[in-house]
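Propose amino acids for all 237 sites.
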């Protein structure tokens, strides 16, 4: 094992520059979140079912609703957030969904939650001699098996209309994405963060981050992810 995450990250950057997409699929993720992985792969191959965002409605949602959706549909599961939004497809448009399993799970609901976005409280930063109110978009996710075309744009518009941020920062998991979809909607690529190290429990397949631990005990082996792409959407004129 080469204990040099910077080496593997450099290889990933070189491949990205040649427009070669690389996905790092970890065994623990495959074993514990297989249906979400399959949904992500179908989306990347352009095979997931799509619905237009114009049919949906944006609403504020509560923490239990957000947490359950992320556990069911996001590879990194839930995370604390102050501001929480959901895209709902009204029942009168359920006919556009061809996946009978999704419809069967929600047949008694008046609307189906098809995407979510969550945001932090604002933080103040000084950049280029000016003060900025900056928010972080912490999570964005589509319902597995579905892609809401224009969904993220619609969620961001509702958020910016309500809170008038000077900028919005977010991250893309470099194990899965180079974040080009963020650039298409107005985010600027800032940097690739350092890889995070973690160990996986052999029995529970639970990940534990390794922070400032030079040596691991027993049979544990340290792993490294690919880091995260950082993006910034500048809104202050």
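Proposal:
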């Amino acid at each position: 094992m080469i204990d040099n995450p910077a080496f593997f990250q450099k290889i990933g950057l070189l491949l990205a520059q040649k427009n070669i997409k690389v996905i790092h699929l970890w065994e623990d993720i495959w074993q514990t979140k297989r249906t979400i992985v399959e949904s992500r792969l179908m989306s990347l191959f352009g095979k997931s079912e799509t619905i237009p965002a114009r049919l949906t409605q944006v609403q504020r949602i509560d923490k239990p609703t957000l947490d359950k959706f992320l556990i069911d549909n996001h590879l990194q599961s839930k995370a604390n957030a102050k501001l929480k939004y959901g895209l709902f497809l009204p029942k009168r448009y359920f006919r556009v969904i061809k996946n009978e399993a999704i419809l069967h799970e929600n047949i008694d609901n008046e609307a189906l939650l098809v995407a979510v976005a969550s945001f932090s409280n604002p933080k103040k930063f000084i950049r280029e001699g000016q003060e900025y109110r900056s928010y972080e978009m912490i999570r964005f996710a589509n319902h597995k098996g579905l892609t809401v075309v224009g969904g993220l744009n619609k969620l961001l518009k509702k958020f910016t209309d309500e809170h008038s941020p000077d900028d919005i920062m977010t991250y893309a998991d470099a194990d899965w994405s180079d974040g080009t979809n963020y650039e298409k909607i107005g985010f600027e690529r800032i940097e690739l963060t350092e890889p995070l190290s973690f160990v996986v429990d052999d029995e529970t397949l639970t990940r534990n981050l390794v922070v400032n631990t030079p040596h691991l005990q027993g049979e544990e082996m340290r792993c490294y992810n690919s880091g995260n792409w950082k993006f910034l959407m500048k809104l202050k004129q």
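The radius of gyration is 19 Å. The first helix runs from residue 5 to 17.
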